[in-house]
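Dear Dr. L.,

I hope this message finds you well. Following up on our conversation about the binding site, I have prepared a predicted three-dimensional model of the protein together with 6-O-phosphono-beta-D-glucopyranose. For your records, I am including the exact sequence and ligand specification that went into the calculation, followed by the structure tokens. Please feel free to forward this to your student if that is useful.
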Amino acid sequence: MLLKDLSLIPSEGNSVPTGSLLVIFGATGDLAQRKLIPALYNLLLDKTLPKDFAVLGVSRRQMTDQAFRAQLQDGIKKYSRQALQETTWRQFERHLFYLSGKLDDPTTYKEIKACAEKIEAEFNLKGNRIFYLAIPPTSIVPITQGLEQGGLVQPVAQTLPFSRLIIEKPIGRDLVSAQQINASVGHIFDESQIYRIDHYLGKETVQNLLVLRFANGIFEPLWNSKYIDHVQITVSEEEGVGTRASYYEEAGALRDMIQNHILQLLCLVAMEPPWSLDSDVVRSTRLDVIRSLRPIVGADVNRQTVRAQYSSGIINGKEVPGYRRELGVRPDSTVETYVALRVFIDNWRWAGVPFYIRTGKRMSKRATEISIQFKGIPQVLFNKNLPQPLSPNILSLKVQPNEGFSLQIISKAPGSKVAIHPVEMDFQYGTTYETASPDAYERLLLDVMAGDTTLFMRRDAVEVAWAWVTEILDGWQRYGSKWLPEYTAGSWGPVEADRLIEQDNREWRVL
Ligand code: BG6
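The resulting structure of the complex is given below.
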């Protein structure tokens, strides 16, 4: 079935984006080139970008508007979902500007203000400004203070023109540092003006989780401890640390992936039906899941968690170095590039259901999947006297790269004898919708322009997630062993992670 006219199925919660000036701090960095500008360009191609928009890139490096545009054009050629089209690009690039300045210098903010006003006059923008902080977390506080002192922040009580702030993760490196950043930013911007990005929430397949659960009648009655045996969440990457060693050495997999992206996936799988699609209702319902996570404290870290580091190995036929041999990594680093956890959600719905989570760099393949494994059927009838009990039903939600979902069910093979085995009912975005899904940043930028905070992290959610994660970090520090287990690059992780799940008589899914 091909769904061509998606507008036939209207949905609640689609607000209208308002034209604005996007001021990107750290505009010469990777994020702007790979994600932000290609996202805006694709929105323009898809005719969803408001007509009145402009971008002002700010960074230390000296550069002309022309050089900035050339760099961004390059980024679009390399990273855009849709190919560069000369005429659209010409139209687009007229809206891109650059200003060089030191982020700790008050004159920079005066210049930003003057420059913003000039651009706003030229494009007849209404003074709506979005500040995107694509910079390391240490610059968040100085920049927000600079914005305030430079008179660039509109009071929240005045609805138009608006000032909105987008912050990238990581917000802090533990509970205390996250609280400090949130408190400082909160003195300047009201919570309703702050958009903390978790790009996983913008992924098409992740948004579909709530639709799958709450727009269908067949799943929800089964979505609880009575019918579900366990849930697995895997986010595996082929990539190593690449050029981000200095960041990663301070972070590691738990801070980099679990505190944010994976806990958010867990929330969407486990949350209760929100009573409305109102942004704060959805966000509070997601947060309830994190609040119900059973803490992993003290020596429990050794029973409920596994952390490991990749050693050299082969990825796609090419030899790759071990983590400690990567450029910029300390030769005696004990930073984890892999984490596996066994997690429980202590609420009525999920009592006793383990959630097994694993994520790692330099693994066998890139795959993000959530699999819901239902309980087995009684060992009578077709499940009687088998050397091995029948496989259970498994609903696997494939987030990337092969977007879709499949349901494993048991079926009879054609023939006069009864031979039964698992088959898969498969839905793939690629075949059903024909076009590639928009990138997460496309949706998220539009949402900021529309003032919709649903897919962004509220302050309390960030802090509650950090509180849970910080206990694990503390446990590792106090009770963990000094040397981490290793796994060969290109494998599915360390043997210790297999043991973690096998001790419960279960096994990791083969993806
Ligand atoms: C980022 C992490 O937030 O997410 C990276 O910092 C990771 O380490 C990336 O590679 C994964 O994102 P995606 O969208 O490629 O799965």
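In brief: The chain has 15 helices and 18 strands.

With kind regards,
A. P.
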